[in-house]
């Protein structure tokens, strides 16, 4: 549960889900049954017995094309199956009928058959829409006479009870393929399918290349998704027998509305509909980090998100091309330090723990063998490179007799992998294996090292890169597909100059902490934002480097994405994805624009920020305290999804550190926790405090001025607290959204906000609790204690570091907050 993620953003979701349904819907033609006597015409519907699903005509957004589909009866309706996905009907004159011999056909305005289900040869056929979303053809009144079912021909969605995989007898291969775009259900680029080679596993294809694999089934879970076990609401089933190989899931509570989709952006998501908030909550999105992508580290390479760099060689192996490897080009992978010595029988095995097993399409499986036999068999076969048990309970045997690819290490879950090594390599220390020491050094040392490394990478990539660099985020482009770059690409100065029209004043978006921010365009399409370090700003250099080194390593949809940097000649610029909706404060604190942020959007923003912060605090490779969370540092993309930005003041902390102390108090007046402002002590809980302030600001549309308690009205926390204590919490809610509000959610959010701003850091929840609280609307939250008001009289350092953001909030990238550091 803790890891659950929300779908990208509400507006995006709405956009996607909000199909324009036929106007003037006429009544359904007879419940859930279609008979040869009466075709289904545009405007008519079949409704499943329990009213969960509807079958009828629909148009996706931004098109008038008509399709016959099945959708969940939720609002907005969510299409789960499309019959004529490749063959739209251009007007409202199409119809669906069942022929006298039991073939479903769709006829267009010219009476031409544009889709058919294949013939069935029934005597008295009917088609029926079942309450699990299956549309079946059968003999009327005869049970078990099914001859065709929509479940055998999935679109982009797998519903509970649907099989993803093969009927080996008939050769039927059921897979899910994304739509081309939100307005076109035709088969898109991404397909999730069962691969039968070796030990079966599910593979996400992008065209003809493999993007991600789930790993094989180990009796309990898919080895590539260990966290699946946390989601108790889903039961996963994986069947391998002589007739069938398929994967299927059920929900533990059958009344849950759930789906698994492969989205046109190439993400697999399992989501559940929350009826009270009218949205889909995503429980798992894959692939989720760079290590998930196929063979990131080459042959015999191991990917570990906790390490930096993320790729290392298996123990007993060394990089094949040391120079490239050091430069983080991992494509060539690794090779043995010492060749195996099969004949003398001196080889042995090193056991690696918490592993996503190497690609099993190149493996041989014997499900009955015991592990010691497995080991013996591997030793006997000179081409055997590794073995593992097929079942997590220790039975069964998987043997690899080829090079090992696509191995990753998890921090929990995964399996043991036994890699065969020559005797001499068995005794080796942690030489080239994935080493924690590296992390230690990185995290433990001052940012200097990071900074140095990162500049190096930048320069290096710059040298070997063609112009018009590709954002590192586009892992699907060729270079990254080959497993090369998750580090920061460098942009050519010429490209930057061209993109910003030579830093022209027209392109200037605003003034940031360490220099101006410009809007730019890469080629025709891609809009970017460019932050330029002023040549004169000496102190900005630190923030620039800090930002560059930190964000380059972070990957989350709720964090601003750094596309690259440019450090050529005197110029130092950072290139970001462009955020057309600027920052949250430009909406929140503007009377006219505040109405655009309805309750759902605000809730979505709160959740997004929480997810982003959780990632920083806990889930990213580095553990990071942002230290300057505030409305102007929350940027909004075109769908109003929040992205945390500005890492100029962020700090890495080690796992064993709970709080750090600093002499220099930086941050923004009004968002700073009392212990930090007064004593310079900061911890994740200071970010939680700032988050709490943000939540209350988002709900109220008012700014927390951070003034003294005596100036009662200006202090949002004081105001919120007193309303809460009087039992009038809802009065806090911004008037401009009073019509879209969900009272239960609003009350919970206010309470949550107040919990986060409690005076004592210990009382404040961690971000993972916050995310849980936001996700589970039924948990009753504890009662908040009094907030930590901003101190009446701050220490001198704080006074001098008072923010000057307000005037600059028009910035695309709001400024860092501190003057005198
Ligand atoms: C596809 O998935 C991504 C990642 O979860 C999400 O941001 C995006 O909104 C999704 N698109 C649609 C149309 O659901
Ligand atoms: C489609 O139906 C409309 C009325 O709904 C009619 O005006 C039009 O002529 C029809 N088109 C064809 C090709 O039959
Ligand atoms: C069923 O009917 C359709 C159209 O009427 C025809 O094309 C098909 O051959 C028939 N199939 C069988 C098995 O009779
Ligand atoms: C697999 O296909 C065969 C041949 O069409 C069919 O007889 C069998 O029932 C199918 N198996 C399952 C489990 O659906
Ligand atoms: C998906 O299924 C279709 C239809 O069975 C098949 O033609 C296609 O090859 C499958 N794709 C993959 C990647 O298995
Ligand atoms: C281990 O799991 C396999 C398959 O799930 C099962 O057949 C076998 O009986 C289990 N063995 C033990 C010892 O539990
Ligand atoms: C199942 O879910 C429904 C609706 O979400 C809920 O009302 C019901 O209490 C749940 N049942 C169980 C056993 O959890
Ligand atoms: C077997 O081991 C011996 C001594 O370690 C070595 O000299 C010999 O080359 C090895 N044989 C093979 C076939 O590798
Ligand atoms: C080693 O195992 C592979 C896969 O099981 C098999 O194809 C090969 O014939 C075996 N080689 C020897 C020498 O036994």
Rounded to the nearest angstrom, the radius of gyration is 29 Å
| Strand order across the largest sheet | 27-26-34-30-35-32-33-31
The assigned CATH architecture of the largest domain is Orthogonal Bundle
What's the end-to-end separation, in Å? Answer: 41 Å
Strand percentage: 25-35%
Present as ligands are: 2-acetamido-2-deoxy-beta-D-glucopyranose
GO molecular function: ATP binding; protein serine/threonine kinase activity
InterPro entries: Bulb-type_lectin_dom, Bulb-type_lectin_dom_sf, Kinase-like_dom_sf, Pan_app, Prot_kinase_dom, S-locus_recpt_kinase_C, S_locus_glycoprot_dom, Ser-Thr/Tyr_kinase_cat_dom
EC number: 2.7.11.1
Main location: membrane
What does the model show?
The protein is α+β, with helices and mostly antiparallel strands and 821 residues long. It folds into six domains: 1-153, Orthogonal Prism (Agglutinin, subunit A), CATH 2.90.10.10; 157-288, Agglutinin, subunit A; 292-428, no CATH class; 431-474; 475-578, Phosphorylase Kinase, domain 1; 582-790, Transferase(Phosphotransferase), domain 1 (Orthogonal Bundle). Helix content is 20%, strand content 27%. The protein contains 18 helices and 46 strands. It has an eight-stranded mixed sheet. It is globular, with a radius of gyration of 29 Å. It starts with 9 loop residues before the first helix and ends in a 21-residue tail after the last helix. Bound molecules: 2-acetamido-2-deoxy-beta-D-glucopyranose (9 copies). One 2-acetamido-2-deoxy-beta-D-glucopyranose is lined by residues 341, 343-344.
